[in-house]
Amino acid sequence: MMDRLQLTLLLGRTEICNFSGFKIHPGHGKIYVRTDNKSFRFINGKCESYFLQRLKPSKLDWTVVFRRMHKKGLTEEVSKKKSKRSVKVQRAVVGASLDAIKQKRNLKPEVRAAARAAAVTQAKEKKKEQENKKKAEKAKTTARGAQSKSQQPKVSKLQQKGAAPKVQAKSR
């Protein structure tokens, strides 16, 4: 059986540098194995040194990662991709059919404004009626409360809970 190194030499398989992104041909480069058994392939000692210094390859302008990020060397893809134009489709909304929506859209602005003004005035009238009802109910409840309070003697909260009545001050 052949070991892995001989197999790669025979097949001519290229690896990729874990730091720079360059191709590593058979018989070249270094392999760094960490204590957790993860192996890293580097094309040369420079890449290995920078990796061990924890430098970011995206900040070094000679690495493949940097060139990809900054769109360098993409001469083949000069022509821009044509963007698809989105086609607007009118759909019905819940509570309104498509015909109703089109009919409202085709109305003249004056008619639409008049309808809106009528709706606003109607809403204001409704609100006033509700406020008047509330005021009437509040007046009734305050009248009932005043009658019931006038009949009962004044008692503090502590007296309601069962405390002894307050001793009256005596003149000297």
Give a concise summary.
The chain is mainly alpha-helical and 172 residues long.
In terms of DSSP E residues, the strand content is 5-15%
Radius of gyration: 43 Å
Average pLDDT score:
84
Q: What is the total tally of β strands?
A: 4
Task: Quickly give the structural class.
Answer: mainly alpha
- The strands making up the biggest β-sheet line up spatially as 1-2
Share of residues in helices: 40-55%
Overview features:
single chain, 172 residues, mainly alpha, two-stranded antiparallel ribbon, 4 strands
Task: Please characterize this protein's 3D structure.
By secondary structure, this protein is mostly helical. The chain is 45% helix and 7% strand. It contains 6 helices and 4 strands; from the N terminus they run αββββααααα. The chain has helices spanning 4-11, 45-52, 64-69, 98-106, 109-151, 157-160; strands spanning 15-16, 23-24, 30-33, 39-42. The strands form 2 sheets. A two-stranded antiparallel sheet has the order 1-2. Strands 3-4 form a two-stranded antiparallel sheet. A hairpin with a 6-residue loop joins strand 1 and strand 2 (23-24). The longest helix is centred in the C-terminal third of the chain and has 43 residues, at 109-151.
